Amino acid sequence: SLAEKLQDTLAKLRGKGKLSEDDVKAALKEVKMALLEADVNYKIVKDFVKKIEERAVGKEVMESLTPAQQVIKIVNEELQNLMGGTQSELNISSKPPTIIMMVGLQGSGKTTSAGKLARILSNKGKQPLLAAADVYRPAAIRQLQVLGERLDIPVFSMGDKKDPVDIAKGSLSYASSHNCDTIILDTAGRLHIDEEMMEELKLVKTAVEPDEILLVVDAMTGQDAVNVADNFDKKLNIDGIVLTKTDGDARGGAALSIKAVTGKPIKFVGTGEKLADLEQFHPDRMASRILG
Amino acid sequence: FSGRSGIDDDLFEELEEVLIQADVGVKTTFALIENLKEDVENEDIKEPEVLMDYFHKELKKLLQDEEGGIGLDDKLNIIMVVGVNGAGKTTTIAKIAGRFKEQGKRVMLAAGDTFRAGAIEQLQIWGDRLGINVISQQEGSDAAAVAYDAVQAAKAREMDLLIIDTAGRLHTQKNLMEELKKVKRIIDAQAAENNASVEVLLVLDATTGQNAISQAKIFNDAVKVDGIVLTKLDGTAKGGIVVAVKNELNIPIKLIGVGEAAEDLQDFNPEEFIKALFS
Ligand SMILES: Nc1nc2c(ncn2[C@@H]2O[C@H](COP(=O)(O)OP(=O)(O)OP(=O)(O)O)[C@@H](O)[C@H]2O)c(=O)[nH]1
Ligand SMILES: Nc1nc2c(ncn2[C@@H]2O[C@H](COP(=O)(O)OP(=O)(O)OP(=O)(O)O)[C@@H](O)[C@H]2O)c(=O)[nH]1
Ligand SMILES: [Mg+2]
Ligand SMILES: [Mg+2]
User: What separation in Å is there between the alpha carbon of B202 and the centre of ligand 4?
Assistant: First the structure.
């Protein structure tokens, strides 16, 4: 773990008294390696290590009897500052229905997360409606309908020959006539560089003005996480992130990169394939996982 | 790199940056650059352009395998497709099936994901679109039973190729990896009885970071992977993870996915891949 590596690196100076510049450099190199191995974006790591360096050459580390522990403490603090701090509740509309729109790359976990979110809202006493706006992927609508059946939550669909904008609008009328106070709109996976598909999302956003746009990101995403998040955020002004598949052993550095580049909060984490597997995000847990 | 005046630390740092940002990973990047530095000494390389050309050739050697793409034997060929959730297994199966159907081969599919909502229907729709039969059972049935039925059916109907879909699973889920081993055992046993060949393809998503190495290791330990399919290369991710995987496990990279349609499948071409890595 990073803590152990830093202990080793700085242990050689036990009894030496003060840290030298080279000692600090060595410690920072360990931090850089740990974050890169955890998939944090290269440029984000550079900026982050600079921040650590500014504090590491200060008294708190240089004159400490346990410099390694001090560095770890600083890294942890800076990581948590980056990861947490912002509110992670869903936006609720003052005029129902509240509309939540799930967006993201292919296979990231949008449809499954839509079902999981509907379940959480239902348990909170809400009347959610799932809306099937993925008209491209074979059996995407069927997939959402099966999840709805399992949860006894209604699924609005207009089949796969209609425009997602019309489906989104249709879900609004359906929600009002069926007393649903929250709509969770599932959209097709798409590339952030697919102009036509990104435009489609913009049109859906304009048509129904979602209260919450959630970017669904796979926790095992590598360096590209920054490109994806930045693009989706610039084009849609997302409200938050759902980080999926955290039940694996990916360190999840993408979470740090995405937060650093968009400033948007991670609101939920997917912790498994079952519909109950969605939890609130804990910045401190994520920080220690990234550090490894 | 060609605009540079000489080979210096800055050049190597820039190279490190390109490789790490391409998801080649810290460990593999450092190993590659250390080797490169030695070669610069031994081969007395002075020009950055010569260095890059040399490096491209070294990477090509690493990534090359005599088996880009997939070939079929003159018998029933069974391909089992595995990988973590959402990597692109089902779609890749449709692409491979479409390719061989167009070549006049007799192809059959098995809906081995009996767990996820809509999984069987998803493969059935692909089967309908391609005019290919899909062997399936009820959702919730035993994946091994579907595999067993499928091999029997493929042999009986004299198929050239049977492709078996499996449910996505994280390599860290021990019980699901045990299930996968069981399905593989059934397939191997049936293949032996029916003079069929078996190949396992691991699907890796190009957007994946260093976790791909762990995925490849554990899937390989469970069911011996014969080849890798790298999907979603039509995005902005470079897929450098395959450099690390090839370096550590020497599993051939056979195919790449470059889109969501049936024709979006290409044989892995190391030269083009390396070119894209540095672009
Ligand atoms: N282990 C695990 N699997 C997950 C999680 N979230 C989703 N999955 C699985 O990931 C795969 C992809 O999930 P989907 O919900 O179909 O993803 P999607 O983003 O809707 O995919 P597209 O619509 O094709 O873009 C499925 O096998 C899900 O069961 C999670 O938190 N943990
Ligand atoms: N852009 C792009 N999308 C792809 C590619 N391959 C697959 N996809 C998409 O990725 C998503 C997931 O594909 P699936 O084939 O369902 O993935 P899977 O591995 O079978 O998923 P699970 O069975 O849930 O584990 C779908 O939206 C596909 O269309 C590719 O090469 N490029
Ligand atoms: Mg979906
Ligand atoms: Mg599948």
Answer: 13
